[in-house]
Amino acid sequence: MTVLKTSMRNFFAHKGRMALSAVAVLLSVAFVCGTLVFTDTMNTTFDKLFAATSSDVTVSAKGASDTGETTSGNGRPPVMPASVLGEVRKAQGVKSAEGTVFSTSVTVVDSDKNNLSPNSGAPTIVGSWNGNDARTMKITSGAAPEGSGQVMVDADTADKHHLKLGDEIGVISAVGTHSAKVSGIATFTVTNPGAAIFYLDTKTAQETLVGKTGVYTNVNVTAGNGVSDEQLKKNVAAEIGGAYKVQTAKETADANQKDVEGFLSVMKYAMLGFAGIAFLVGIFLIINTFSMLVAQRTREIGLMRAIGSSRRQVNRSVLTEALLLGVTGSVLGVGAGVGIAVGLMKLMGSMGMHLSTSDLTVAWTTPVAGVALGVIVTILSAYLPARRAGKISPMAALRDAGAPADAKAGRIRALVGLVLTGAGGYCLYLAAAADKATDGSLWLGLGVVLSLIGFVAVGPLLAGAVVRALGAVVLRIFGPVGRMAERNALRNPRRTGATGAALMIGLALVACLSVVGSSMVASATDQLDKSVGTDFIVQNDGGQLITPQAVKAVKSTAGLERVTEYKLLDATLTTPDGRTSKNETINAADPTYAQDLRTETVAGDVADAYRPDSMSVFEGFAKKHDITIGSTVKVDFKDGSTADLTVRAITSDDVVIDKGAMYASIATAAKYVPADSMPLDVLVFATAKDGQEKAAYKSLKSALHNYPQYTVRDQTDYKQALKDQIGQLLNMIYGLLALAIIVAVLGVVNTLALSVVERTREIGLMRAIGLSRRQLRRMIRLESVVIALFGALLGLGLGMGWGATAQKLLALEGLQVLEIPWGTIIAVFIGSAFVGLLAALIPAFRAGRMNVLNAIATE
């Protein structure tokens, strides 16, 4: 009880000094809990949606996926004859059955040809209005579609794009473009995560999406009273045979949820990873806080020992303070985490993915995990300072306050740090020298971990040399004040090292990712310059295929010398060694693709691969299956027949664009794949006539005006799009790393604040002998700047080493160019100085307000 009282007294006596450490714990716990609440809420939302929209039993065409996604390579959904509906209705236990048609391989535009598809990545669905959808949607305006000239739209899409009754929209599919006017608006009775949904009558949906009537994509079956879904499934399957896919509501919902979980898991663990980095940075803050508090209470602890307190009691007293800190910060963090989750939901809402706060899900494991993690990390961080506190002898009460220095421990730490740093450097060397990216990635991961730990351990040793070097460049120009700031930073190298290490971790990751991202862009740009011989690329950024109507519009554009179509066909290959390779892809293109992409070969000429009944294979595949020029490969095309194709070229693996591709001509594929099963184009390449590039570019954009889902890019546009994509990804990562950097800044603030308290008497004496308040504040600010620059220098140097090593592994995948983004590196380094200035504002202000006499009188 005495230990608890003492701990409580000390905790509240230093509550201001504990606040920043508590904020670090709060931020880290909040990020963890916010991530868990957000992903759990999304799971709940999708669970409810899938459960509500799944009929008791669903019958679909054999080619349909388990998730209900109906898109196929030819742009039309897999269908079954309408006669199946009659057979289903005959099955025992069927209360009702209804045939439907829907597709997600569509684009919907308004009268001005603006794309109405969501920008959140959610699908655009066009289908027939049916009773199953009526369970989850209520017509709130107008009426359901009747006839080919009418369409109904969901309320969220109508609100977003300001659609009203009577507005004209166009549905673009592989069949063609169908125009209709809005006849009704339907509102979801469950949460819609962002899909745009349009309803036609059944006949119009069949004609618009499939190109013929008398077919369905699905039959929705409702069970009679007392009939389970499983029993109904067996009855329906027995009635219609095995030619179709039959699923219960649970199977359909589970398949949809599994598909969503893949995305959610990646997001969840990525965000938790950044939270872990924030926790790691927070450890340094907590260690520094308790180390300085212990140092400032040396005399108090010595007196406690002198009147009978044992080492164990002193140790427990400090750990109890850490427990109070951890509990306080964690509990507040759990509450803040719920707020973060709600904020993320609002953010997703602004992007088009609607999540209702009524579905907010806080599992009991979330606050338990958050509090447990925060408390454990805080106690472990405080363990070393507590252990040092327990070693203070009673004689320390007779001396001036100050933490007992352990020179032996410092030497051991430096030695361990040097060994780990050396081991990490050697692992990075092995990664850079690896022959396979998979092998090198293991060495890279180990090298990153060891070098990071090594730099943290050797930080106090590096602090002396680096701070002196920085002082010579940055501080000396400020005269005596600058020299005092340098000496203050050098006074306790362990403290400076720990404070700088907190900032080092975040900036090391920033530097590493900047190098990797810049190298990827530079390498891809270099490959484009060397390999691409076409002027324009037409594609759908959302991954949809290019409809025949759009291809026709491209080919009719004036000023073009050639147009090349490019398709992907699934196939099973049987190689000369007798082995079968399933799930392979044949890249079928027009022969002019050999001019559009100058592909390097190790044998043969890639242009010969477009001859009749010919193909190319890539180098790795050829070596694995002992394929040479002239070898015959049996190609069993999906939805087609088997072809015997002769290998005319073997392409190099040392490329970026189309790495691992196997080529054949579209004409060859058309001999073995029926026209109605032939996939649509993935890309279309166009080359302008000499001197007509600008005019052709403008004409091509104009020709595709009616197809806003497709983007026309010249090589400059393509390079910029690639740069923007990587830049957006890096900006998102930098945003998440900002949490760790904020925690590191709090560490600098806390270190300076406690340092000012520790040097109260010294500051009073300096003020007494003539140091002005302005000079004092400048000294504190300069000390903060040099500590921040110390952390930045270590972090940026370490990160560039990691990034350069990672680029060596990327070079094995064809990304040959190493590019250091010096602009970013220099900006981050300069920004670190401003971070130091910002962190010093409050400590410097408090130091400047000290009463000189009271400060001198402080013991």
TrEMBL record:
<feature type="transmembrane region" description="Helical">
    <location>
        <begin position="322"/>
        <end position="344"/>
    </location>
</feature>
<keyword id="KW-0472">Membrane</keyword>
<feature type="transmembrane region" description="Helical">
    <location>
        <begin position="414"/>
        <end position="434"/>
    </location>
</feature>
<keyword id="KW-0812">Transmembrane</keyword>
<feature type="transmembrane region" description="Helical">
    <location>
        <begin position="732"/>
        <end position="757"/>
    </location>
</feature>
<feature type="domain" description="ABC3 transporter permease C-terminal">
    <location>
        <begin position="274"/>
        <end position="394"/>
    </location>
</feature>
<feature type="transmembrane region" description="Helical">
    <location>
        <begin position="782"/>
        <end position="802"/>
    </location>
</feature>
<feature type="domain" description="MacB-like periplasmic core">
    <location>
        <begin position="19"/>
        <end position="237"/>
    </location>
</feature>
<dbReference type="Pfam" id="PF12704">
    <property type="entry name" value="MacB_PCD"/>
</dbReference>
<feature type="domain" description="MacB-like periplasmic core">
    <location>
        <begin position="499"/>
        <end position="696"/>
    </location>
</feature>
<comment type="similarity">
    <text>Belongs to the ABC-4 integral membrane protein family.</text>
</comment>
<feature type="transmembrane region" description="Helical">
    <location>
        <begin position="500"/>
        <end position="522"/>
    </location>
</feature>
<feature type="transmembrane region" description="Helical">
    <location>
        <begin position="822"/>
        <end position="845"/>
    </location>
</feature>
<dbReference type="Pfam" id="PF02687">
    <property type="entry name" value="FtsX"/>
</dbReference>
<dbReference type="InterPro" id="IPR003838">
    <property type="entry name" value="ABC3_permease_C"/>
</dbReference>
<dbReference type="InterPro" id="IPR025857">
    <property type="entry name" value="MacB_PCD"/>
</dbReference>
<protein>
    <submittedName>
        <fullName>FtsX-like permease family protein</fullName>
    </submittedName>
</protein>
<feature type="transmembrane region" description="Helical">
    <location>
        <begin position="364"/>
        <end position="386"/>
    </location>
</feature>
<feature type="region of interest" description="Disordered">
    <location>
        <begin position="60"/>
        <end position="79"/>
    </location>
</feature>
<dbReference type="InterPro" id="IPR050250">
    <property type="entry name" value="Macrolide_Exporter_MacB"/>
</dbReference>
<feature type="domain" description="ABC3 transporter permease C-terminal">
    <location>
        <begin position="736"/>
        <end position="851"/>
    </location>
</feature>
<feature type="transmembrane region" description="Helical">
    <location>
        <begin position="269"/>
        <end position="295"/>
    </location>
</feature>
<keyword id="KW-1133">Transmembrane helix</keyword>
<keyword id="KW-1003">Cell membrane</keyword>
<feature type="transmembrane region" description="Helical">
    <location>
        <begin position="446"/>
        <end position="479"/>
    </location>
</feature>
